[in-house]
Design brief:
Blueprint: H1 4-12, E1 22-27, H2 32-37, E2 52-58, E3 64-72, E4 77-82, H3 86-95
Antiparallel strand pairs: 1-4, 2-3, 3-4
């Protein structure tokens, strides 16, 4: 249970929050944004450094497989995924690397 002081620190200052229920995938390579853009629900290919969005990853039939938070860095894109779907996300993404530099 968190105290009022914990909440105030999060709201007004800087604090660390343990999130072991989440996993982080890092995507690198020249084509990382256009590749990712092809199978998530939000436009990501024009996001710049420090920008991000929330999206769903879809299978070939357009069904939702998992949701993710996307954050663009200078040389990588980070994908924040629920730990429950982490392996599904990793396998799904690896499946779609064909000729892209990812």
């Amino acid at each position: 249970m968190h105290s009022d002081d914990d909440y105030r620190q999060l709201r007004d200052g800087i604090a660390l929050v343990e999130r072991s229920d989440r996993g982080l995938l890092e995507v690198r390579g020249r084509d990382r944004l256009t590749w990712l853009h092809s199978f998530v629900t939000n436009a990501v290919k024009h996001l710049g450094r420090g920008e991000g969005t929330y999206a769903f990853a879809l299978n070939g039939q357009g069904r939702i497989l998992f949701d993710l938070n996307i954050l663009v860095g200078e040389e990588a894109v980070w994908l924040d995924v629920a730990r429950l779907f982490f392996d599904v996300a990793r396998k799904h993404m690896n499946k779609y690397i064909i000729t892209e530099d990812v």
